[in-house]
Write a structure and sequence with these properties.
Low-confidence stretches: 70-74, 79-98
Order of helices and strands: HHHEEHHHEEEHEEHHHHHHHHHH
Strand order of the largest sheet: 5-4-3-6-7
Helix content: 40-55%
Shape: elongated
Largest sheet: 5 strands, mixed
C-alpha cells in the first residue's frame, strides 16, 4: 500500500512537471511572439521615421538633387573602377589647375539686344541759346552722349471700326443704256478671326500668351483687361482660346504629330491635371497631360502635349502607335505595350530613388548603401557631362560610353545584386526599381543618340506644371484639349528661340487662309527661315 502511495505521488509530481513544462513552453512561445511583435513595431517605427524624414525634406528641404563632395574624402567610385579593372591612365607629370575666370559684365547693348531703340536729343532752352556774355545766339556744334535708359509703354487697346471702299464706273453711270446695270466694286475684307466676335488676332494671341507662356489665369487677365477699360470676361477669353485652338492651330498640331512619328528617338512624360466637367466622372478625379518630344537626334525639336482622361496604357499606344525606335521615359509600365519600340529608362529617376533613400545627414557617408548608389549614378552623370563638353559626335559618344561608363555600370549592377535591404524601406524600393528594369537602364549604350536621362522631357513639361499651380484646373475637356494644343505652339516657339507672342500672332494671321497640306504647314513650323525672320526679337 505504501508503494501505491509512493507511486501515486510520483505520478502527481510527473503531472505537475508536465504542466509546468507546458506553461514554460507557452511562456516561451509568448516571449517569442512578443519579441517578433517588438521587432515588427521597431521596423514600423523605423519606416515611419524614414517616411517622416522623406516628407519633411519634400516639404521644407531643397529641391536640388546635386551632391556635394568633401576634399580629401574617399570617393566610392575610385573603388568601383578598380573593381571593374579599368585600365590605369598615365599620370600627368604636372598638376593642371583650372584657371579661374570671371565672366565679363554684360553690356547694355547685350542686355537690350533685339529691343527697338531710338535717339533722343535734349534741346537747349531759350535762355541757353543766348550767350551769357554778349547775348549772341549760340551755334549748335554737336551732341554729347549722356546715358541709356529703358522706357516702358503699358499695353493699350483700341477699337477699330472697319469700313471698306465701294466704287462705281463714272462713265457707265452716265450712259442711259447702262443706268440699270451700273457696276459696283467693293474692297475684299479679311474674314473675322471668330464669326460674330469683336476679337482680333492680336487680342486672342495675347490671351494665349499670357496664360500659357506667363502662367496668368483667365480671371487675372479679366482684371487686367478691366484696368485698360475693356470688360472682357474670363468666359469670353476661354471661348477665344478654344475656338482658335480647334479651328486654326489643330491642323498644325497634327502636322507636328506626323513629323514626330517619323523620328527614331523620342522622349515622353506625363503629369496630372484636373478637369471639372468630364462626362460621368467626379470633378476631383485626376486626368493626365502627356508630353511627347523628339530626342537628341540633332534634328529640329518637336514638342507635343496631349490630354487624356486617364493614364491607361492605350493612350500611349494610340498616340505613338506608328512610332518605331527608341523611347526615353521613366519606368512606367504603360509604355511597355507599344509595338516596335526599344525602352530607355531614365537614370535621373533611378538616382532620385536612391537620393530619397539616403537617411538625413548621411549624404556624404559612403558607408551608407543608398549614398553609395548615388555616387555610382553621379559618376555616370559626370561622364555624360564630359562627353557633351568634348563635343562628341553620336558615334564618339557611343564609344566614350562603352569605354568609360560600361565598367562603372558593371560594377554598379554587381553591387546592386549583393544588397539585402530591409523590407518596407525606401532603399528596398530603390533596389527593386533598379533590378526590375536593369535591361532598360542599359539600352542607352546601343546608340549615341539615346538620351541618358529624361530631363529634357521634364524640362518641357515644367511650364505646364508651373501654370497649373496658378490656374489649378480646366473647366471642360475641350478646354484641356485646347490647352494641350496651345502649350504645344508655345513650347515649340520657346524651344526654337522665337518670340512666343509673335509666333502665336503669326499663326493666327496665316492659318485661316492656309491650305492644310503638309507642304503649306511646314512653312509655319518654327524652324522655317521666314518664320524665324518674322518671329524673332522683341514684340
Amino acid at each position: 500500500m505504501a508503494k501505491s502511495v509512493k507511486d501515486s505521488r510520483i505520478m502527481e509530481q510527473k503531472d505537475t512537471i508536465s504542466q509546468l513544462n507546458m506553461v514554460i513552453s507557452s511562456q516561451n512561445e509568448l516571449i517569442t511572439s512578443l519579441r517578433s511583435t517588438v521587432e515588427e513595431c521597431n521596423a514600423t517605427i523605423s519606416g515611419l521615421r524614414e517616411q517622416v524624414e522623406y516628407l519633411t525634406r519634400k516639404l521644407f528641404g531643397t529641391s536640388s538633387e546635386k551632391s556635394k563632395t568633401v576634399a580629401g574624402q574617399l570617393n566610392l567610385f575610385d573603388e568601383a573602377e578598380q573593381e571593374a579593372q579599368l585600365p590605369e591612365e598615365e599620370a600627368s607629370a604636372e598638376t593642371v589647375m583650372k584657371e579661374h575666370t570671371r565672366s565679363a559684365r554684360r553690356t547694355n547693348n547685350e542686355t537690350f539686344k533685339g529691343v527697338p531703340s531710338r535717339d533722343e536729343v535734349i534741346p537747349l532752352s531759350d535762355e541757353q541759346r543766348r550767350c551769357a556774355d554778349c547775348g549772341s545766339e549760340m551755334e549748335v556744334i554737336g551732341k554729347e552722349f549722356v546715358r541709356q535708359e529703358f522706357r516702358f509703354t503699358p499695353a493699350k487697346g483700341e477699337v477699330v471700326n472697319i469700313y471698306r471702299e465701294t466704287a462705281k464706273c463714272p462713265r457707265c453711270s452716265t450712259l442711259s443704256a447702262m443706268a440699270r446695270n451700273i457696276r459696283f466694286v467693293k474692297a475684299n475684307v479679311p474674314e473675322a478671326l471668330i464669326p460674330h466676335s469683336y476679337t482680333s488676332v492680336s487680342a486672342a494671341a495675347w490671351a494665349m500668351y499670357q496664360k500659357y507662356a506667363n502662367s496668368m489665369p483667365l480671371y487675372r487677365q479679366e482684371q487686367d483687361w478691366k484696368q485698360m477699360g475693356v470688360p472682357f470676361s474670363r468666359a469670353t477669353l476661354a471661348n477665344w482660346i478654344i475656338y482658335c485652338a480647334m479651328n486654326y492651330l489643330s491642323p498644325l498640331y497634327d502636322y507636328f504629330h506626323r513629323e514626330l512619328l517619323k523620328r527614331q528617338f523620342l522622349m515622353a512624360d506625363e503629369t496630372r491635371v484636373q478637369v471639372l466637367k468630364e462626362p460621368e466622372r467626379k470633378a476631383e478625379t485626376d486626368s493626365f497631360m502627356w508630353l511627347f518630344r523628339s530626342g537628341e537626334d540633332g534634328l529640329p525639336v518637336i514638342i507635343l502635349y496631349k490630354y487624356t482622361e486617364t493614364r491607361a496604357k492605350f493612350n500611349a499606344v494610340e498616340f505613338l502607335g506608328e512610332f518605331r525606335g527608341y523611347l526615353e521615359t521613366d519606368c512606367y509600365q504603360g509604355y511597355d505595350s507599344l509595338p516596335g519600340i526599344i525602352r530607355c529608362c531614365c537614370w535621373a529617376h533611378l538616382r532620385r530613388y536612391f537620393v530619397e533613400a539616403v537617411p538625413k545627414g548621411k549624404k556624404l557617408d559612403y558607408s551608407n548603401p543608398a549614398a553609395q548608389a548615388v555616387q555610382y549614378c553621379n559618376k555616370l552623370f559626370e561622364y555624360e557631362r564630359q562627353s557633351r563638353e568634348k563635343g562628341h559626335t553620336f558615334d564618339q559618344r557611343k564609344e566614350y560610353r562603352l569605354q568609360k561608363e560600361k565598367p562603372v555600370l558593371d560594377a554598379f549592377w554587381t553591387w546592386v545584386s549583393s544588397q539585402a535591404p530591409k523590407k518596407g524601406t525606401r532603399f528596398e524600393k530603390a533596389v527593386n526599381y533598379a533590378q526590375n528594369h536593369k535591361e532598360q537602364f542599359m539600352t542607352y549604350l546601343e546608340d549615341g543618340r539615346c538620351s541618358f536621362s529624361n530631363n529634357l522631357s521634364e524640362n518641357s513639361i515644367r511650364p505646364f506644371t508651373v501654370g497649373r499651380k496658378n490656374w489649378l484646373f480646366s473647366d471642360t475637356p475641350k478646354g484641356a484639349e485646347a490647352s494641350a494644343t496651345v502649350y504645344t505652339m508655345v513650347e515649340m516657339a520657346r524651344a526654337h528661340g522665337l518670340n512666343i507672342y509673335k509666333y502665336l500672332k503669326y499663326l493666327l494671321e496665316r492659318l485661316p487662309s492656309t491650305k492644310m497640306t503638309d507642304s503649306a504647314l511646314s512653312k509655319l513650323a518654327p524652324w522655317d527661315q521666314d518664320v524665324i525672320a518674322s518671329c524673332s526679337g522683341a514684340m
